[in-house]
Amino acid sequence: MGGRGDYYKQKYGGGGRGRGRGGRGRGGGGGGRGRGNGYDGGNSNNNNNNGGSMADLRRLLQQMDGRQYPSYHDLETTKGWVNTEAGITLYVGRAQSDPFAPPTRCRVVLQNSVAQIPPTLYSNPIRAMATRGFHGKSTLLQALQLGVYLKLPGDGREFCVTSPHAMKIRAEDGRAVSSVDISPFINNLPFGKDTTNFTTPDASGSTSQASNIVESIEAGATALLIDEDTAAANFMCRDDKMVQLVAAEKEPITPFVRLVRSLYQEIGISSVLVIGGSGDFFAVADNVVMMDCYKTHDATDRAKQIAAQASGSSNGQHSCQPGVFQKLRSSCKRYPVGDAYNPAGKTKVMSKIVIQYGETTCDLAGLEQLVTKAQTNTITNSLQKIASIASNDGVPLSQVLDQIEQAVAQQGLDVLAPGQFHGGLARARRLEIAGAINRLRRTGNIVQR
After folding, report:
1. What is the tens place of the pLDDT at every residue in 9-67?
2. Fewer CB within 10 A of the terminal residue: the chain, N end or C end?
């Protein structure tokens, strides 16, 4: 069974160690950096010092035609290829052979000795991944949503990194909602139902998705991951024909496409969107990545051209009232009621997504970033801890989460289950703990003040 050297010889050619000694490698046909077979490339010293005119570039490309991949490194130059007639200089910073490599606009190059992701990776607040079905966009999002967890180095997963405060958002028909202000997204409900203090035992797709976003913001999320396949269609966008049929003042839902920019500008919440059926997000996205046979391609410029040609669309023209999300974060406080989190019976973790909490069943299927039942054990113990933390009903939810996090950081997970030594606990993020607090079906479990 061949080792790493055999793999690179098969992929790039070459017959020996280093950058090709003989064979078909970078030193094909003998020692040195020549390519063999009559190929010179004019680059026998340091290819970073090369460059020249467009005629030189054309001649080099003709010489490289049909050669092995390593020959393309002769294009790399700091001097550039100058077109005097057009007044431009072409620079090639890196030759890339991997078809699954990310587009240049989204790529970060790491030194071998450094495994740290620079903040510039997240400099673009809104990204859209678009293509037709079955080409890998949802698969890529699934990798991103699990990138919130650190991985042991060795198999490549350590380089799939997402902000630890990123939250996967989806619609959850039928979930319970308690005292959530969803007014930035939904208003004008029938019979004047209040959406600034929204409570229901059976939320619709759109109201559940709006609640999930607001609850995640409250818990400290800094990025939202949304897949069109699991989102409420009427919550994400509305086409022009529907706008003409239903007047804006009678439409209860403000589409997410009109709010996603305000989310970032006002409170710094970024979004990663997987879309396959609507191009309305092209106008508001900073980057558009197109998936084709599981390969990523930068389609930002083309998407912006398409959006400009269809600038008459009503979806992206207007956002919500300025400051609505700042007000939501600063003024709306929700308080867990301690007695509601007393299990009043036995608790049992039935599976990764189901908790039997006394006589109440808590469904966590909407928390897609849970990866192990041991995390659910931790969440169950955290719920019981709330009964003492919020015994006077005067502690905001955000502070309840802070206290749980601080206790675990200082004393370890055993602080949540004193006297139990079964070793079946794994740390859960505050976002998933908050998700369980919000999904527990008990009357008056959270109040708004």
Report:
1. 555 555 444 444 444 444 444 444 444 444 454 444 444 456 778 888 888 888 877 77
2. N
Residues facing 289 on adjacent strands: 129, 298
Three-class SS state of 319: coil
d(CA 237, CA 278): 8
Name which of 160, 174, 225, 151 is nearest 431 in CA terms: 225
Amino acid at 333: K
DSSP β-bridge partners for residue 132? none
Please tell me the distance from the alpha carbon of residue 15 to that of residue 31, in angstroms, as a whole number: 11
Q: Are strands 446-448 and 360-363 parallel, antiparallel or unpaired?
A: unpaired
Quote the pLDDT of residue 10. Answer: 57
- Distance between CA atoms of 132 and 130, rounded to whole angstroms? 7
Is residue 256 within 8 A of residue 185, CB to CB? The reply is yes
Question: How far apart, in whole angstroms, are the C-alpha atoms of residue 289 and residue 266?
Answer: 25
At 260, list the tokens: 């996603």
Count, residues in the chain: 449
* Rounded Cα distance, 89 and 66, in Å: 26
Backbone torsions φ then ψ of 212, nearest 5 degrees = -60, -40
For residue 11, what pLDDT is reported? 54
Please give the pLDDT value at position 115.
46
Q: Residue 358, Cβ neighbours under 10 Å: how many?
A: 15
Answer yes or no: are the C-beta atoms of 287 and 128 closer than 8 Å.
yes
* CB contact at 8 A, 260 and 284: yes
Q: What are phi and psi of 158, to 5 degrees?
A: -65, -15
Specify the pairing of strand 223-227 against strand 198-200. Answer: unpaired
pLDDT for 69-104, tens place per residue?
667 667 766 677 777 777 777 776 666 656 666 676
Distance of CA 364 to the CA centre of its chain: 20
| Regions of the chain where pLDDT drops below 70 | 1-50, 69-70, 72-73, 76-78, 92-102, 104-105, 107-124, 126-127, 130-132, 312-321
Say what the pLDDT of residue 24 is: 42
Q: How many C-beta neighbours within 10 Å does residue 395 have?
A: 17
CA distance 120 to 38: 43
